[in-house]
Amino acid sequence: MKAIIYYSLSGQTKKACEERFEGDFYRLKGKIKIPKSYTMQLIYLGMFATVNSKLSYEPIDINFDAYDEIVLASPVWAWTIVPFMKKFLKYHVFNDKKVTLLITHMGGPGNTLKGFQKRLHPSNMVIQTYSIPTGKDYENATLFKK
C-alpha cells in the first residue's frame, strides 16, 4: 500500500500524482496567504523557499507502519522543494521504506531531486524519481534546456 504525500498550489503536482499513483493521498496545506498575482507568487514564495523559512501547514496524521511505499511530491520553488515539505520531512521521520520522489517544475529543476533525497532517513530506499515539466511556458523557455 502507498501513502502519497504532496503539496500542490496550482494543482499540477496533485494532477501528476493522481495520474501515476494509487493509494492514500495526504495533502499538505500551507498556513500562508498566497498572493493572487502569479508574478508576486514567484517572488513571495521563492523567497520563502530560498531562505528555508519555517512555514506552517495544517497537521496531518500518518501511520507510516501501514505503508510499504511512500510517495513524496512537491513543486519546485526557487530550485528546491517547498518549505512545507521540508518541514514535514523534518518532523515526520520514517524508516526502512521504499520511496518515490516526484517534482513538478516550470523551468530547470537544478539539483532539487538530490536535495529532496538528502532529507530522507538513510534507511529508506529511493526506488523511483520523477521530474515533470509543467505549464505552457516550459515549452518555450530559453533559459533552461530540456
Short description:
With 146 residues, this protein is α/β, with parallel strands linked by helices. Helix content is 29%, strand content 25%. Strands 1, 2, 3, 4, 5 and 6 form a 6-stranded mixed beta sheet that branches.
Structure write-up:
- By secondary structure, the protein is of the alpha/beta class.
- It has one domain: Flavodoxin domain (Rossmann fold).
- It has five helices and six strands.
- It has helices spanning 12-20, 38-50, 83-91, 112-118, 136-140, and strands at residues 2-6, 24-27, 69-77, 80-81, 98-105, 125-133.
- Strands 1, 2, 3, 4, 5 and 6 form a six-stranded mixed beta sheet that branches.
- Helix 4 (112-118) links the parallel strand 5 (98-105) and strand 6 (125-133).
- The longest helix has 13 residues, at 38-50.
- The chain is globular, with a radius of gyration of 15 Å.
- The N and C termini lie far apart (33 Å).
Draw up the topology in text.
Blueprint: E1 2-6, H1 12-20, E2 24-27, H2 38-50, E3 69-77, E4 80-81, H3 83-91, E5 98-105, H4 112-118, E6 125-133, H5 136-140
Parallel strand pairs: 1-2, 1-3, 3-5, 5-6
Antiparallel strand pairs: 3-4
Attribute tags:
six-stranded mixed sheet; alpha/beta; Rossmann fold; 6 strands; 146 residues; disordered C terminus
